[in-house]
Write a structure and sequence with these properties.
Elements: H1 2-19, H2 24-40, H3 42-52, H4 54-58, H5 62-76, H6 80-111, H7 121-135, H8 149-168, H9 176-197, H10 212-242, H11 247-295, H12 302-328, H13 336-371, H14 376-409
Pfam families: MFS_1
Keywords: Antibiotic resistance, Cell membrane, Membrane, Transmembrane, Transmembrane helix, Transport
GO molecular function: transmembrane transporter activity
Amino acid sequence: MVMLDSTVVNVALPSIGAELPAGPSALQWTISANVLMYGSLLLFGGRVADVLGRRRSFRLGAALLSAAALSIVLAVYQIPQQRKIALTVWSGLGVLGATIGVVLGGLMVTAISWRWAFLINIPVGVAAFVGALRTLPALSATTARPLRIPTAALATAGLAGLSYGLIRLQDGMTTPAAWISIGVAAVLLTTLTMVELSENDPLLPLHLLRIPTYWLASVGLLLAAAVMISSSCLASIYFQQVHDMSALAAGLSLLPMGLASLVVALVVPKLVTALGPGGLYLCGVVAQLIGAGVLATGTSSVAVTILALALIGAGLPSCFVPLYGIGSSHVRLQESGVGSVLLNTFNQTGAALGIAVIGTVLATTTRGEISAGASAPDATTTGVGHGFLALAVCAAVALVVALILRHLTRSPQPDTRQPQS
């Protein structure tokens, strides 16, 4: 349901913009506000799951649901092989949700109205709630700990200010409100870091970031999420505004991207065994880099675009599954809520910031091309190409992270040399 939320609106954005007086910045916030609020509350959701109980938290709300879900997986499946399979299923269902989202979004917009896309949570939420009552184990809370609500508010405000500033940059690089917001966000997030470092029981488990594999996995998740959600958003705009597709046709054109992700997710356990988590992550990053690089050329071919998106999609589970596995391997049971959620927070923050940056690149490029005399479709094609160029840069940075993680997680090879007599 969480991943479905992140993609179902992508297909509806052009229809929303056509019916409502919404400019590019407002349309960006349609996605960013949801992703940002969800991601900003994940840390608090992890603490709630640890303090009030994971099953109870799972039934309350999106940020609490996701935080509790991952901590439930880590708490129930503690045998390494079982945990690897469980994390694969958890990530694969997220990919399935994203795939269903683009198709359902297109179907609803075309057949009924874009407004129905915002009601999709009701049947899914009811089913998940009933299923949780019947099947989830009654995992007890860890210890009596404070919820740290002021700290959660500080983190939310800092991330919101950063995203708002990045989105406002599309109005011009000298926009005062953009830089003021970014400056305020820097102060708030710095204050948050200093406060948390002085706490005996911090909401933000910064001590985990001292572990190289943990913070590298966190950075990798941030970059992978930026590529994932921004790719589907850019592609939806491209299909509908450049090739004049309906919302349903655009959703179906995005389907190969989701199906490629799902197919790879099914064989991820075998790939992890064969390549190791670091090696699999490296393969996923290379796939994303190639796909984004092709789309950065500003191609006008629908077939090439779909194939490149499928390549990006194939790289998604190859990134998310090993990164969650590498990062969560260092999380203690009593910190399974906030420890695993910190990884998820990097994931969702990457999605929110990715939309903010890519949307700004798209809007400024398109506006500049139109001012230079280009037609709207040609200007949008160039803007989408520049957006994918930015994603290719993200994938290139991730490539460096992947090479380091592969080195750090590579199992030592046994010495097969014969002893000298």
